[in-house]
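Me: I hope this is not a bother. Any chance you could explain this protein sequence and its structure tokens? It all follows right here:
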Amino acid sequence: MPTASSADSVPRIAPPSAEEFRERYVKTHQPVIIVGAMEDWPARQWSGEYLAARFGDRRVPVAHVTDNRVTDDPAVGFSHREEPLDDFIERIGAPGPVDGYAMFLLGQTLTELESDLRTPAFAPPAPWSVWRFWMSAPETRSPLHMDLPDNLFAQVVGRKRVTLFSPAEEWKLYRNAPWSRLPHMSRVDAEAPDLARYPRFAAARPLRCMVEPGELLYIPRFWWHQITSIDCSISVNYWWATGWVWRIVQLALAYQRLRKLTY
């Protein structure tokens, strides 16, 4: 049976069968942490030193960070720059705040690393899927946001703190306008909310968990989440979409290309 520690409100389970995962979690849109599903991943050998040795001179997209949070502006979207991976790794290993969060699709930047990953056997077959890479300094956090696809978030190095809200809570989360450049983002920082500006957020009911190295967190589609690195952290996530959700993802990707949006 699923268990949850006193610090977590998301249960931990052993790797499920495909049927169990589909029926108990995907169909019911329930977050869950899966322990022991990454033991055969070559990615478990990753470290900053390992990546710098293999790809140090490779230029990678790095998002700007302000006050330990990825900088997002509904009017302009995310601001990125490119820098050599070894320079970025050196910076996030130094003391103090770091302006930068490496976040990109593996297939566009470090394609070679995809061979170090394994699609879990319990993940549903899907006409569309993609791997995304995340690397950051301690205490760096994402904005509060939701994704259209289902998400298996794999923690490879370090720990991350995750705050989740169900889609039913969305009206309390002050989502950006649909016509903005970041329509899937919230204006609220879930870890430092300004309740004078966003009073409805006080009534929002989060789920919270800590994701340890070697654990997978299933984040159902449309669930809102904010993720904070506790340590120097490397993560990947596996997005997938099926059925009518895949149709929506296709439209969203076309809209993203049309408006030249970068997420």
Residues 1-7 have pLDDT under 50 and may be disordered.
